[in-house]
Amino acid sequence: MKKIVALLLAIVLLLCGCGQKGADASGTIFCMDTVMDLQIWGSDADEAYTQLAQLLRSLEQEWSANEEESAAAKLDQQDAELTQEQMALAQKALALRQRTEGAFEPRIYGLTSLWGFTTGQYRVPTPEQITEGMQSTRWDLGAVIKGYAGDRAVQLLQAMEVDRALLNLGGNVQSYGTKADGSAWVIGVRDPKDPNGTVGNLEVTGTCSVITSGGYQRYFEQDGVRYHHIIDPKTGYPSDSDLASVTVVCTDGMTGDVLSTALFVMGYEKAVAHWQQHDDFEAVFILKDGTVRVTEGITLTGGSCEVIGREN
Ligand code: ADP
Ligand code: MG
Asked: Please, which residues have CB within 8 angstroms of residue 138's CB and are 6 or more apart in sequence?
């Protein structure tokens, strides 16, 4: 069913011409459970497009949370052989877990599978099941794999010497290079309350990841209660903060992806404190009451927002 919806979406995107804004190679693929829109400029754009689509599909296969053969499953086995790249990803994930004081928990499969977010067979677990799920140390890198894919895509585009690219990896936007006229890349920030609306446009320059996590992205409802897909590892339940979404702008895709998830779990105050203590990202916070607040390095046009300073 999800695939059919995504296919329809892909067709709509194509009909709107969203995939063909003058890029030398462009198109839409369904990968990592989402629709991805790829646009590449440069003389080798066609070949780069083919290789990029291949790379994204191979990463999907390599890291799928459910397959016993996947790298995520291998991380759970003592004697499994991992590539250097896979070990580096796992180590970086653990370092980011520490940085976010466990708000990002790469070994969260016990909980995400319990709620059915890894399979789509949703259910509300009992408190006993939650306690049990919290004991598990199985890996689930769903919160980082698209950001990591953005980093790998940049490496590929660089190696192929394309001029520039704009990749929408299912809500994770990765820009590469500078636009021909030197102007900024313009990326809409979705209004959590309106699937078709935005709260404004982010302007970013150069190679950059723009990544959003929100409670509206994936959820199910039971007995009138909405349960979304971002779990607070400390409670085992979907995180319940004052935030409706967090968008992170970061030069490192994987770090940005971790942060969007982790800041969403932390809630507004802790998230701002985290930004004040680090200088490798900027963020747009949309609170549940609809207020939009941006860190001072953000340029947001076409909408109203409050600016957060370093010394608040
Ligand atoms: P999306 O993948 O929808 O863009 P995220 O990047 O925020 O959104 O990742 C959410 C996914 O990460 C969930 O579907 C789940 O597999 C996993 N996850 C949920 N909560 C956490 C958490 N606190 N830490 C790490 N991974 C999580
Ligand atoms: Mg994420």
From this structure: 76, 107, 109, 110, 113
Of the listed ligands, the closest to the CA of 219 is 1
Task: Tell me how crowded residue 16 is: count the other CB atoms within 10 A of its CB.
Answer: 9
User: In a 3-state reduction of DSSP, which class is residue 296?
Assistant: coil
Question: 33 CB less than 6 Å from ligand 1?
Answer: no
| pLDDT of 11 higher than 50 | no
Alpha helices in 144-234 (DSSP H): 145-159
Residue with tokens 């209004």: 191
Cα gap 132→181, rounded to integer Å:
56
- Distance from residue 215's CA to the centre of ligand 2 (Å): 12
Please, are residues 27 and 19 in contact by the beta-carbon 8 Å criterion? yes
Mutate to test the pocket of ligand 1, among 109, 209, 229 (most ligand atoms within 8 A of CB): 229
CB 122 within 8 A of CB 115: yes
Atom of ligand 1 nearest to the CA of 265: 23
Q: Is the CB of 192 under 6 A from ligand 1?
A: no
With a 6 Å cutoff on the Cβ, whether 207 touches ligand 1 is: no
CA atoms 37, 42, 48, 52: torsion sign: negative
Is residue 169 a contact partner of residue 267, using CB atoms and an 8 Å limit? no
Q: Mean pLDDT, to the nearest integer, of 230-251?
A: 97
Instruction: Decide: 218 in ligand 1 pocket, CB within 6 A.
Output: yes
Is the beta carbon of 34 within 6 A of some atom in ligand 1? no
pLDDT-derived band of residue 311, with 50, 70 and 90 as boundaries?
confident
